[in-house]
Amino acid sequence: MSAFYLDLQTSAGVSAPLELDSDCLEPRTSPTKHPGQPLRHTGSGGLGMALEEELAMLSGERGDEGGLSDVEMPAVGHNADLLSLFRQKEKDLVLAAKLGKALLERNQDLTKQYEKMHKDLNEKLEHLEQEKHELRRRLESREGEWEGRVAELETDILHLQGELERHQVQLRDTDRDKTKAIGELSEQNHRLLEQLSRAAEVERQLSTQVNSLRDDFREKSMSTSQHMTRLETLQAEIKMLSERKMELEHRVHAMLEENELLQNTVDDLRERTLVLERQCHQKDLQVQTLNTLKPLGDYYNTWIYWKKNTFFSQLHNLPKSNHLTSLETCCMRLQLWEAYCEVRSLCSHLRGNDVTDSALSTDSSMDESSETSSAKDVPTGSLHTSLLELRRLTQNLLDGNESTMALLSVETRSLQEENERMKTMAELREPSEQLQSAIRDRDDAIAKKKAVEMELAKCKIDIMSLNSQLLDAIQQKLNLSQQLEAWQDDMHRVIDQQLMDKYQDEWRSAPSSLSGASRAHGGQSSRRAHRISDRDRRLFSFFKKS
């Protein structure tokens, strides 16, 4: 650290200029004493040596740190404070060196700027001296020219004074001629004023015509505004009616589509009604067949019941009566078997079987082949169960037909009501009186619109004609005013031209030929007056034509 400090000090001493004292940049530190070893502060080199000795002593004390007693501990803390103080001082010295270096660089920059500015100032002074010399030389040349010019002007003034005297004499002569010309021109102005009064009268008449045309135009514009308001109201009504027409057309289109859908549904319902009527007819046929079979079933029931009663009574009386023969017994068995077969065939027919039971066919064939079969071939109670089954099937068939008939009748009635409702809705969906009235209103609105458009076209034609008349009157008035201004300009131009001609003739003519020039000028003025009178006559003839 001390070596770094010494390098900084040497660099600062080398870079410092001759004008600055580097010793002033060093901070003045008060010498401090360590207990047991004093510090010697003799400049920057002495400070570095003192720091090295202090560091060596601190390292030696750290080696002997184990042998120190409690009494020497405050001395170690004091050495650490000194070391931190030295480090802070060293940092301050480094900052002071950096500051000195920066100040030196700033001083060098300022010196360079000063030299540059001094050089620029010298160059500008030289340039100003050159300009001053050039201006002095030009001033001298201008003074010589000015003196020559003044001499020339003085000679010109003397010459012009002589000419002025001659011109004054001539002007007095021209004043006399001018008074004569003014008298003549005053007479001409009097005549022109009379013509101007007549032109003003014509202008007043034209202004009255313009005012009348303007009033007519205002009245027409008011009527046009009224027509426009009426047209706007009619356009609003037409727009409303057109919207209503479009709405009604949409409604009619929707009604037609709905009517078509309803017509399709009506056709479907008619087909469905035909199918249901066909099914109902078939069910009626079935019911009729059942009604025809019902008495037959009752007859069979009574006959079977009677057969059963007689058979059981005969069986019951068989052990008591021994008078029956074997032939009657066989006949009874045969009748019993036939009744059983008939009951079975009816049950199978009611169940939907067209073919009889195979067992029945075999039993019937066995009975036909042998007449000596016993009564045990017919099962006990089977005839009764067959009769009960026949009764149940008949009752079920009758109940099913009744429920089917009721259902078909209800469905037919609902279909008829729906058909009637569809018919009424289709009749109501046809174009009503409201739609016809709306169509009539639309036609009336279209007719009114056409009439209003015709009336508006007529009003526009009238307005255009009035505008054209008003524009013609304004144009005529503008033409008259332009002609009047042109006439006044011509008069001023003629007067100026006469005066200029007089002046030119007087300037050109010599004093000896002044009388001849005046006679020529009088002839020329008479010719010009003749031309002016011709022009006035043409102007008055134009006013008379207008």
UniProtKB/TrEMBL annotation:
Domain of life: Eukaryota
Chain residue ranges for the region called Disordered: 22-43, 357-380, 506-531
Signal peptide: none
One GO term (biological process): vesicle transport along microtubule
Keyword Cell wall biogenesis/degradation: no
Keywords, sorted A to Z: Coiled coil
InterPro entries: Spindly/BICDR_Dynein_Adapter
Protein name: BICD family like cargo adaptor 1
